[in-house]
Each structure stands twice: as structure tokens, then as C-alpha cells.
Design brief:
By secondary structure, this protein is an alpha+beta fold. It contains three helices and 14 strands. It has a six-stranded mixed sheet, with helices on both faces.
Length: 182
Amino acid sequence: MALLKEESYTIEDIYALPDGERAELIDGHIYYMAPPSYKHQKLVMELSAIIRNYIKQHKGTCEVLPAPFAVYLDEINNTYVEPDISVICDPNKLDDKGCKGAPDWIIEIVSPESRKMDYLLKLFKYHSAGVREYWIVDIAKNRITVYNFNHDYSIEEYSFTDTVKAGIYEDLSIDFSEINIL
């Protein structure tokens, strides 16, 4: 839920939050984040491990970073997000504060509190910022929605019994039926 304030918030307002308080900043509005559930975190870890192992086996240079990890989508100091999983292939975008610019691939795990953000607001922001691929993994709906923003904008939907191909890699597919999140 956005805070009510006449002026826009900035990154400094995010840094000024009390310890332990997590929030994202989108277009100058602060959105508080609820703690993730066990299933949410287990899925983040499983997916991160699959992607990381793939990159290591192929001697790739991309980095896989799970939340909390700062992504600054714009240069104007008013959009800061913490995607559940970020895959960044340009090392020049990374520094000790986080990622400056769009990651190549973002995965968001939907929680009841984040549903509207993940499906609407973040979809628009990630596409506008230049994210190449965006996955919305919705445990409650048994659905994985894949947005490929590369050359041809495409949207595909899968269930947790399907194998889903990662668009930024030629030969990475994730078999969701093999992931146990119970």
C-alpha cells in the first residue's frame, strides 16, 4: 500500500526506513512489503539454485541474485525494487549498492499482498526499463506467466506440471513438476 504524501519519495526515504522494514519505491511512491511465506522462500531458493547451477555448468558470466537485492530501474532516483530473483548479465550494472538499470531476467513469486504489483505495476516498469524476460510465478493459481520482451513480445502461460524454457538462454528449461515446495 502506498504511503500518502504530497511530494514524491526518493531513495533516501527508502534508506531512512527503520531497520527490518522492507519497501519498494516505484515512481516516487513507497510500497511496504510483507514478510514472504515459507513456500515463497523455498521456491525462490529452488529457482535460484537451478539458474545458478546452469550458469556455472555453462561457465556463464551472469549473476543470480535473490531478494533482498536492490535494483534501481531509473536514473531519476524514484524507482527502487527488490525482485524475488534477478539475473544480471552485464557486470557493469553491479556494484555494492545493487543493480543500476534493468536486469536481464526477473522472476517474481506472487504473494497475496503483491498480486496487483506483480501483475500490473511491475510488469509495466520492468518492460519500460528494458528487462528482457519477466516471469510471474503464482503458487495460488498454479501458474507461471512468461513475458518475453526480447525481439518479439510474447506472453506464455504454464502450470506447475510444465517445463518452462528460459528465453534468455538457448538451452535452459525448468521443470516445475520436479520442484517440491510443500
